[in-house]
Amino acid sequence: MKIGILTSGGDCPGLNAVIRAIVRKSDQMKFETIGIKNGWKGIFDESYIQLNLSSVAGIINRGGTILGTSRFSPFQEKEGKDTLLHKISKEGFDALIAIGGEGSMHIAQSAHEAGINVVGVPKTIDNDIYGTDYSFGFDTAVGIATEAIDRLHTTAESHHRIMILEVMGRHAGWIALYSGIAGGADVVIIPEKKIKVDDVLEVLKSRYKRGKLFSIIVIAEGASFEELEISKTSTGKKLDDFGRERLGGISTYLAEEIEKRTGFETRSTILGYVQRGGIPSSFDRILGTRLGVYAVGMINSGKFGRMCALQGNEITDITIKKAISKLKTVDLDIYKVAQVFFK
Ligand code: F6P
């Protein structure tokens, strides 16, 4: 059995733990493992690397992906499907393991429909892949965002300022919500729950009346406000290779509005790629390892066109088709927990 492994889409902490687990489990099963460089593009470029025990030694704690990644989509290329099928049979791959987020799972589904033996492993710091309770990378990102809130807290308090932290989260506000609860934020703003700038001002003013001269706001990059027709976060931004607008900047808009309407001194911080880089948390290493081992078992059982997933504390699998049928947005019951502290 010859397995090709690729990582596709934005990187995230825990990818190397998955790659290591796939290679170690494959070694146990006497399967051959080939790393495909830079996502699906590596198949087109025939850019491969033999993976063995020594090539995955010492990588469980490394951020990023030793294979490199890209947002290349074979099916958007001219004669892309034929090229993909030709290159896969030329290399003699019996199966592929595609580690990626929602965009990459769409590609995996098309590959499956084209007759390629593919297994998906869900990855994203945004935690928005349907069918898995958590995706690895998310826990690390929440930890980094929580630390950022802790640090903003002390400077906010010293300067009597409003501090806004903008975190990643294109369609789902999981990172904002979890880090906001963990960091004791006074307001959390997520894409799933549109509010008005006035709602934020109400909280800030009521805190001010209670003698709280500083406040912490956490906002997801994909969030917007009821009064904004076009999302300020995306206006004029370039598209990425998956055709999605680049996000970032809603916190700057909010900071300006707060200062203009209240006179409260306000600063915004965009956390950006810091929350996606660096060492994975132990939770993400364990989740990545469990998924990697499980994915090899799926190949052994011929469970193609399926994605492994964490449900409760069990690793299981669902069809990739189901996983891409919708996004896993924030559980509004958890948002209600955060709301208790918006005053
Ligand atoms: O998809 C995950 C994500 O972290 C999004 O939250 C963010 O919008 C996007 O990646 C940005 O990544 P890049 O700049 O690499 O396209």
> Quick one: CATH class of the largest domain?
Alpha Beta
Bound molecules: 6-O-phosphono-beta-D-fructofuranose
CATH topology type of the largest domain? Rossmann fold
Order of helices and strands: EHEHEHEHEHEHEHEHEHEEHH
Beta-strand proportion: 15-25%
What does this structure look like?
The protein has 343 residues and is α/β, with parallel strands linked by helices. It has two domains: 2-136 and 280-323, 3-Layer(aba) Sandwich (Rossmann fold); 140-277, 3-Layer(aba) Sandwich (Rossmann fold). Helix content is 39%, strand content 17%. It is built from eleven helices and eleven strands. It has helices at residues 15-29, 41-45, 80-91, 102-113, 138-159, 174-183, 197-209, 250-262, 282-300, 320-323, 332-339; strands at residues 2-8, 32-36, 48-51, 95-100, 118-122, 162-167, 187-189, 215-220, 266-270, 306-311, 314-319. The strands form two sheets. Strands 3-2-1-4-5-10-11 form a seven-stranded mixed β-sheet, sandwiched between helices. A four-stranded parallel β-sheet has the order 7-8-6-9, with helices on both faces. The longest helix has 22 residues, at 138-159. It is elongated, with a radius of gyration of 22 Å. The mean pLDDT is 95. Bound molecules: 6-O-phosphono-beta-D-fructofuranose (F6P). 6-O-phosphono-beta-D-fructofuranose (F6P) binds next to loops.
